[in-house]
C-alpha cells in the first residue's frame, strides 16, 4: 500500500526549481517531495539546471512557473494545500500539515486528467485500506475537522421547517472556472434547491469577505427571496451540515465533507468527488469511468493522493497523526478561547503566555496583586501562576464574574530548567485547582476520574509511552552524566530504591504531602521501611543549580548509600527496583517505565490503583490502566506550543521537539551560566 506522504525516489539526483515565496515559507515542502533531492528558488540572474518546476496548482500566481516549465522543456509539478490543511488559515501564515503534489494536473481541474483522477480510475483498494479510510472518516466527523479549522463551532438554532444548504463561492475562484462552471451554474443550483424543497429554508453559505464587501460572490442577491437566508459568518462546516437535509454545491470541498456525513449532495460543477456515482451531477466527465464507494474515494484522495508532514518537527507524517494534531490544536484553542486578565506575571512569562492562550483569545496583563475594577472590563477569565490565587483575588473574580484559572508547567516541559528561564513547551491551565494540590479537585483529577479513554486514545498513549522510553526523556531533560552504580552481582539480593529529592519550599509539598514534608523525613521513612535496601538519593536539579531550598544536612547522609547529584534521572529510574517519593514527577516517569512506585504524599498519579500509597485519596475511586493515566496527564491535560512558530502543537510533537533540541544542545549556554551567577550572588535562593 502506498505511503501517505512519499513517492518513489529516482536513481539519480533530481532538482526542482520554484519561483513562489510561499513555497519557501512552508516548512514541509522539502520532506514531502522525495521525488527531488533538492528544491531551489529560481531568482533573476541565477542559473540552475532543474528537472521540474514547482508551482501553486493553476492559480494566477503559477502562470510564470508554468511558462518557465514550457520554456525549459521540463515538467510542471502542481502543489496545493491538502484536504486537511491546518488549524488556521494560510493567509494568516498558519503552517500547512498536508499537501497534494500532482504531476499530471491538479484535482480541481476537470478539463484534463489529474493524478487523483487516475487513481480513482485505476486503483485497487484492499480491505485494510478501506477500513483505515472508514476509521479516518469517523475520526474527522467526531472531531469536526475540515480543510481549515479556524471557524467557531456553534450549532444553528433549531427551525420549524426542514433546511437545505446551498454553498456559494468567491467569484472567479480557480476551482470554479476549471470545474466547468460559471455564474449561471450558481443560479441554476439555487433555483433547483428552491424548487426541489418547496417547504424548506434555504441556507446559503457565503464567504465572510463577500458579506463585508471585500470580495464578490454569486448568490448575494438571493437574500431577497423569502425562504433564503445568507450565512456570512465564519462557521465550522459541520455545524451547517448537521442542520440540513441536503447539500447543493458547485465545486466546494464542503460537498465532500457532506458525503462523509452521509448527506445527499448535488453538484453543479465537476469537483474531484463528482462523476463517481456518489453525487447527483448536472455535468458528466467521460474520463471518470468507475463507480466508487465513499470509502474508496476517501482512500484515494486522503490516503494516497495527499501527503502529510508535521510542520513543527519537519518530519513526514500520516493522515491519522495529522488528524490527532489538528484535533488537539482545535481542542486547546476552544478550551482557552476568550478574553483573559493575567495577574502578576513577570516580563519573561508574558513573552510566551500569549502563544499558550492561543489565536481565539486576547490577554491583558497587570502587575497589581489585586487588579482594579477597570482591568476586569471585557474579560471573562483571570489567570495566575500556581498558588497565587489568594482570598482577595477569589473575591475579585466572584465580584466581576470572572472564571479563575491557575497555570503551571506541564510534564514534558523543556530542555533546561524553568528556574534558568528556559521557555516551556507545555503549560497546564486549570480552572478547578492545581494538579499537585490534593486538597481540592483539579481539572486533571476530574479528567482521570471521569473521562472516557477510547481504544484509539489508549493506543496513542501507549505509543507515546514507548517513544518517551526510547528517547529517555523526562520533564526538564538537562544534560547529566551516566549513573555510576554497583553491579547487580555486587548488590546481591539488596533492592535498589531511588529517592528523588524535591524543593522543600515548593507548593507541591505544602499541598500534596501533608505528613512527610522534607527530603530528610522521606529518607528516614524509606530507610525505616527498607533497612537492607541500596538507597540512591537524587537531589532536585533546581537545588543542585543553587536556586532552590532542599539541601539535606550532613547527618542525613547516613540514610542513603549513594548520592547521584549529576546522574541522568532516567538512568536512575532504569536501575531502580522501587521509587519512593513525596509527590515528585519521577514517580510518574517510573510508572511509565514499569518501576514499582511508592508515594508518601498524594501526587496526581496516586490513588488510581497503580502505586503503593501511604495516604488515602477518597475522591479517587476509579482504577486506571497505565495508558489511561498517560492519556489524561500527557495527551489531554496540558497545553503545548511550538516555540518557533508560536502555534499550538501536541504531546507527540513536543516529544520530538525536545529530542531535537536536546540533540543540538551542548552543555549550558553562556546566558544560563551568567544568569545563574547573577541569581545566586544577588537574588538569593528562592
Q: If you had to describe this structure to a student in words, what would you say it looks like?
A:
- The structure is a single chain.
- The protein is α/β, with parallel strands linked by helices and about 675 residues long.
- Among the domains are: about 15-120, no CATH class; about 125-310, Rossmann fold (3-Layer(aba) Sandwich); about 485-650, Rossmann fold.
- The protein is about 35% helix and about 15% strand.
- The protein is built from 24 helices and 25 strands.
- Strands 2-1-3-4-5-12-13 form a seven-stranded mixed sheet. A six-stranded parallel sheet has the order 8-7-6-9-10-11, sandwiched between helices.
- β7 (about 200-205), α7 and β8 (about 230) form a beta-alpha-beta unit.
- α4 (about 125-145) packs parallel to α11 (about 320-335), α15 crosses α22 and α15 (about 455-470) packs parallel to α23.
- The longest helix is centred in the N-terminal third of the chain and has 17 residues, at about 125-145.
- The chain starts with 14 loop residues before the first strand and ends with a helix.
- The model has no long low-confidence stretch (mean pLDDT about 90).
Q: In brief, what are we looking at here?
A:
This protein is 33% helix and 16% strand. By secondary structure, it is an alpha/beta fold. A seven-stranded mixed beta sheet has the order 2-1-3-4-5-12-13. Strands 8-7-6-9-10-11 form a six-stranded parallel beta sheet, sandwiched between helices.
